[in-house]
Amino acid sequence: MTAQTPPTPPFRDPALPFAKRIDDLLSRLTLDEKVSFLHQFTPAVERLGIAAFRTGQEALHGVAWMGPATVFPQAVGLGATWNTDLVRRVGEAVAKETRAMRARDDRVGLNVWAPTVNLLRHPLWGRNEEGYSEDPKLTSAIATAYTRGLRGDHPTYWLTAPVLKHWLAHNNETDRATTSSSVRPRVLHEYDLRAFRETVEAGATAGVMPAYNLVNGRPNHVSPHLREHLRTWTDEELLVCSDAGAPTNLVDSEHYFDTHEEATAAALLAGVDSFTDHGTDSSQIVRRVQGALEQGLLTESDIDAAVRRQLSVRFRLGEFDPQDDPYADVRDFDTPQHRALAQEAAEQAVVLLKNDGVLPLAPGTRIAVVGLLADECKLDWYSGTLIHRSTPLEGLYERFGAERVQFAEGVDRVLLKTSAGRFLHVPEAEGVSDEVRGAEGALDPALLAGRTDLPALTTDAAGTELALVDWGEGVLTLRAPDGRYISVAEDGRLRASADQPGGWVVQETFRLEPREPHGMGHLLRHLGTGRPVSVAADGARVADENPETFEVVVVESAEDAVTRVAAAADVVVVVAGNDPHINGRETEDRTTLRLPAQQERLLRAARAANPDTVLALTSAYPYAVDTAALPAVLWTAHGGQAAGTALARVLAGDVSPAGRLPQTWYADDADLPGLLDYDVIGARQTYLYFEGTPLFPFGHGLSYASFAYGDLAVRVAADALHVSFTVTNSGEVTADEVAQLYTRAVDASVPRPRRELVAHRRVTLAPGERTDLSFEVPLSALEFWDVAQGRPRLEPGDYELMAGASSEDVRLRTTVRLDGEPAAPRAVLERGLDAADFDEQSGVDIVDRSKARGDAVTAAPGRTGELVYRSCDFGAGASAVTVSVAGQGTVEISLDGGPSGAVLTADAPGSGPYDYTTLGAAMTAEGVRDVHLRLRGALRLAHVGFSG
Predict the structure, then answer these.
(1) Is 69 helix (H, G, I), strand (E, B) or coil?
(2) How far apart are CA 770 and CA 394, in angstroms?
(3) Hey, CA dihedral for 96, 99, 103, 107, is it positive or negative?
(4) pTM
(5) What is residue 446's predicted lDDT score, i.e. its pLDDT?
(6) pLDDT value at 556 more than 60
């Protein structure tokens, strides 16, 4: 007899729908197996033939952390292209390289954590480089393009499964795990949710990752918005992956819950499906979930819901149907097409901010290229390892010839003299490998250790000349003649060992501190450890004992070197900007828009030596720079592997620049609100509301051609505006133009954007060529969130449509009248007032009404809170008022800003923040009035009610 072949289980049957297959697989998994699936690193289930799986592969602008890969421009640079087709192709290339890399290294995952959809609300945010734009529409357009490329175009199977980061209202690194973003309903719905919503609704998103911060007093990892909003936007199962360590933060740093079992249960019930915590060790999360089950905080059906979402992603990735997976054999890696695409993206990301005619550079121009980034191709925390590398200097050498290009880096070349009269010395390193940080890949690059196989720094009579750079705020790097940076490894010794500054905790930065009490000489403090440098017979190390006093001996100043080459050139190109690992990065916000002082000095020295000085800013964020005396200024984000070639081709005129600013460049720090002020409406933030004069406006970017706009026409349909106009290249070179369409509510009843982007298109036009552009603008794009109704509303009235080359360079405009829905006063006798649904505020924070859901309002520390609720209809009259409050303090109520109508005092010592009580008082009101509230003390106001 022959054994019968066991029947194929339904979860292995590709003819069945995924939902039925997942049902079958769930029924076969034990509870313990399902619980194990909740950690980022899901173990294999060998009895069912199910492989191990992990969520999370960083892929923001190329495959990150896993070794060599194609490196595309930073995300903010991709945003600056304003080119959705290009960004889709970049996403597809990244996804194909992910598949190719996984084929040879199973540490590489197909659930990619990208893109970042956080809006670039504040330019001092340390992670500005990771977002696309300050504008929700542009952000969602670019993010949607990238996710479509990552997903692939097969109707059933996905190339990779993208997860959007970081939900929600997350724009500060300072105390990011404990700060709360106070987000009023209008900002929530009109700004922060929009970019996520439109990207999810496009259908190429597998999930989201909550952010570390709290919103309105509640951690994002237990946010009700995950269920109330996110999961209503699509019929697809969305996988919610926690950020690293965030589940533990709920107890350890945020103190929001008393126990980890309670916190883990709350996160899972809120919608978190995969817990990224404790690295590859899943045991603690498993124990917490098991404890929550034992305590009755979770049920098996709760576990099933989360596991179902993970399995949905795995089925879509073809894991259970390798024979049908159209992407199973993808091996596209570092192909000529990918290299060309990296260059195309870098070229399209360059923004020409100013040009008085010095650009493009004429053939035969003698060029001095100077600056700290002139011979650099910088990477950031979410980059792969470079396979190819192009710096501005190399690009200019290649384009103009080395004989016509002179170079000065603009560093101070120094010796460090000890108190004993000897000098810091870098010994010869013989027989050691030339390693590049991260070249082998790492699941967690934060765990990569510094090198200890090189000799430690010593002292001798001559010393070693070091390149000293001040990156701003006194943060220094020191580089040896062989190009290696002075770094500190785990043994505390100083070595010339790092190819670049980097790491989760940068070990290559120092600070010179005047030695007290007499100020003679300096301590050299290592910032990674916080310890000063000490010198002993066995070499230099960081130690709290016997800190060395150093004298800085300048061998050549940066300004002298720059002046020398600048004076001999026809044109100077100053390449300035930031190192993405220093002064503005994940975990560290910037403190100023200004260029670092050393780079300001270099720019002044170059300009003094040669008036034809071009400033090429290469940075992850905007700067406030005095450009009045400069004939030309460009900006590009760190442009990846082809950055130098791209910049050189733009400077030479081989490519006409057509990048556009994805965020406002403010002229001064004084133009900025506080970093933690998330009220873009009240604080007049971003181009949408800013009323000052920017250095360069949103959407700005010049060209080597000129463009004429004409024939603006608008047709109003039932649910959309159909807008068309023409753009003609009236210049002499083929070039791209980015045509932008904005709207404005002319006589809005509430504060509305000065103008708001509703559509754009990047087009290539030959000289004299004209194109007809048509856009369909849904009327929903003109709505605002009506706090009185708790929903979007299209206000009747006039709406201006503006077409042009930037938010301020408007070439065409017209006005249309829309019927809309008339405003209705607040029916306060029926519904009262939810405290957070105010029209205007000052001095308040929005906090959590309870740990599960709802908002309340409290006076900011040391402030008197002011709230205004417009058009409250008291009908025939009200005679009493009630307030739902917790804590201690007073609520004062008045009408139309007049005298106080009632004062209610809460005084319950020892009560908790969620122990609400209802207070009442007599108050007379009739007709339609504005209600004004004043809050004092540590009191939370949830609701105000009125009765007749």
Answers:
(1) coil
(2) 37
(3) positive
(4) 0.97
(5) 72
(6) yes
For residue 663, the SS3 value is coil
Angle, helices 643-652/392-400, rounded to nearest 10 degrees: 50
Q: Kind of pairing, strands 466-470 and 889-895? A: unpaired
What is the mean predicted confidence (pLDDT) over 749-769? Answer: 98
pLDDT digits (tens, 9 = 90+) for 476-508: 999 999 999 999 999 999 999 999 999 999 999
Dihedral in degrees, nearest 10, Cα atoms 219, 178, 165, 446: -130
Looking at residue 823, its amino acid is A
Nearby residues of 421 by Cβ (< 8 Å), 6 or more positions away = none
Digit-coded pLDDT (tens) for 226-284: 999 999 999 999 999 999 999 999 999 999 999 999 999 999 999 999 999 999 999 99
Mean pLDDT score of the chain:
96
* Helix boundaries (H) for 517-596: 558-567
Which tens digits make up the pLDDT trace of 30-81?
999 999 999 999 999 999 999 999 999 999 999 999 999 999 999 999 999 9
Beta pairing class for 939-947 and 833-834:
antiparallel
- Give me the torsion for CA of 326, 328, 331, 332, rounded to 10°: 30
Q: Which amino acid is at 107?
A: R
Q: Tell me which residue has tokens 């795995």.
A: 314
How far is CA 614 from each of CA 248, 353, 369, 597, 648, rounded to the nearest angstrom? 50, 11, 10, 18, 12
Angstrom distance (rounded) from CA 549 to CA 363: 52
b/e 553-563 (16+ beta carbons within 10 angstroms → b): eeeebbbebbb
pLDDT digits (tens, 9 = 90+) for 431-444: 666 667 667 777 77
Structure tokens that stand for 710 in this block: 């004409």
Are the C-beta atoms of residues 507 and 489 closer than 8 Å to each other? Answer: yes
pLDDT tens profile 323-340: 999 999 999 999 999 999
pLDDT 10s digits, 137-174: 999 999 999 999 999 999 999 999 999 999 999 999 99
Name the 3-class secondary structure at 757: strand
Q: Active site includes 243?
A: yes
Beta bridge partners of 841: 867
User: 3-state class of 118 per DSSP?
Assistant: coil
Indicate which residue of 135, 192, 243, 845 is catalytic: 243
Burial class (CB in 10 A: 0-12, 13-18, 19+), 866: middle
Looking at the DSSP bridge assignments, the partners of residue 186 are none
In Å, how far from its chain's centre is CA 410? 30
| Token duo for residue 577 | 């900007």
Which whole-number Å values give the CA distances from 507 to 323, 384, 484, 581, in the listed order?
48, 20, 13, 10
Contact partners, residue 407, CB within 8 Å, separation at least 6: 368, 369, 370, 374, 375, 393, 565
Integer-rounded Cα Rg, in Å, for the chain is 30
- DSSP strand pairing (770-778 vs 720-729): antiparallel
Amino acid sitting at position 265: A
Amino acid at residue number 675: L
Exposure string for 889-919, b = 16+ CB within 10 A, e = fewer: bbbbbbbeeeeebbebebeeeeeebeebeeb
Structure tokens at 40: 């980022």
Q: Which pLDDT tens digit goes with each residue over 625-655? A: 999 999 999 999 999 999 999 999 999 999 9
Tokens 């040009």 locate to: 355
Q: Which two tokens stand for residue 585?
A: 């990065």
Burial environment of residue 590 by CB neighbours within 10 A (0 to 12, 13 to 18, 19 or more): buried
Beta bridge partners of 355: 632
- The C-alpha angle 681, 687, 688, rounded to 5 degrees, equals 40
Q: Identify whether the C-beta of residue 258 lies closer than 8 Å to the C-beta of residue 228.
A: no
Q: Please, how many CA atoms are within 13 Å of residue 670, restricted to the half-sphere of its CB?
A: 2
